[in-house]
Each structure stands twice: as structure tokens, then as C-alpha cells.
């Protein structure tokens, strides 16, 4: 698959169109079959007990898969999530960034399906697994 937007272009898009997440979430790497994104965890992402909240992990998976789609299609801001599933498998390690490694399983004209594994930085075992489907708007 051809890459249309690299990590720099995706991060610029996020800063421009989604400034509410651009400070904490960042695309690290874009490859033909894989995208890596990072959540720089701070107090805003923690829940009582000092672990990263589920909504923060969900947002990382959503951002990573969304950006994997944009990397192939270009800046289609109106691509929207139509289905999402996340499995929380273990507690993220305290004080560490979270890394999402995702890949697209299908990129069609109307739908895209992707999956993401989320890891505490430096750990080999995933803390969560997500699968999502997006609706791609028709080209104007």
C-alpha cells in the first residue's frame, strides 16, 4: 500500500484539526503495513489507583487506526468510527507512555477495518487489544 501521509504530515493534521489530542497523542512511525502511535501519559489520563484510564487507551487505539487510514487515503477528516471493540488485558505500567501498534486489515472504498495492540513502553506484553471499523465518506 502506498503511504500518502507520513508521521510528520499526520501530526500536523492532528495539531490543526484535533488540537484537543495533539498534545498527548502522537504518531511515531508509519510503514506500509503498520503505524505506531504514542500516548504521553500524565495525570489527566489516570484513574484512581494510578493506572491509565480505559477511555485514554481507547482514544489511543482510535487515533492510531484513524491515522493508519489517513496515511493511505490522505486527510479525510470525516472518516468516522462505526464499530469499536477493546479488550483490557492487564494493568498498564505506572509512569510509562503507552504505545499502540496498529495495522489495517481492510481498506475498501466504503469501510476500513483495523486493529491495535497497546503496550506500556518497554514491555513486551500488550495491555489492551482493539478492533475498529470506520466509514469512509464518498469522494467529492
Automatic annotation (TrEMBL):
The keyword Ribosomal protein does not apply. Its EC number is 3.1.2.-. It is an enzyme of class 3 (hydrolase). One of its GO terms (molecular function) is hydrolase activity. InterPro entries: HotDog_dom_sf, PAAI_dom, Thioestr_dom. It comes from the Bacteria. The keyword Hydrolase applies. Keywords: Hydrolase. Residues 49-125 form the Thioesterase domain. This is PaaI family thioesterase. It comes from Paracoccus spongiarum.
Amino acid at each position: 500500500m502506498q503511504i500518502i501521509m507520513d508521521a510528520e504530515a499526520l501530526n500536523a493534521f492532528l495539531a490543526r484539526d484535533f488540537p484537543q489530542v495533539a498534545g498527548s497523542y502522537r504518531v511515531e512511525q508509519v510503514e506500509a503495513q503498520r503505524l505506531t502511535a504514542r500516548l504521553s501519559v500524565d495525570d489527566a489520563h489516570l484513574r484512581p489507583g494510578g493506572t491509565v484510564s480505559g477511555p485514554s487507551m481507547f482514544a489511543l487505539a482510535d487515533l492510531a487506526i484513524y491515522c493508519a487510514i489517513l496515511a493511505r487515503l490522505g486527510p479525510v477528516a470525516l472518516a468516522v468510527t462505526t464499530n469499536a471493540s477493546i479488550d483490557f488485558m492487564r494493568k498498564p505500567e505506572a509512569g510509562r507512555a503507552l504505545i499502540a501498534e496498529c495495522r489495517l486489515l481492510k481498506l475498501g472504498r466504503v469501510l476500513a477495518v483495523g486493529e491495535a495492540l497497546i503496550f506500556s513502553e518497554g514491555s513486551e506484553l500488550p495491555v489492551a487489544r482493539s478492533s475498529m471499523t470506520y466509514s469512509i465518506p464518498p469522494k467529492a
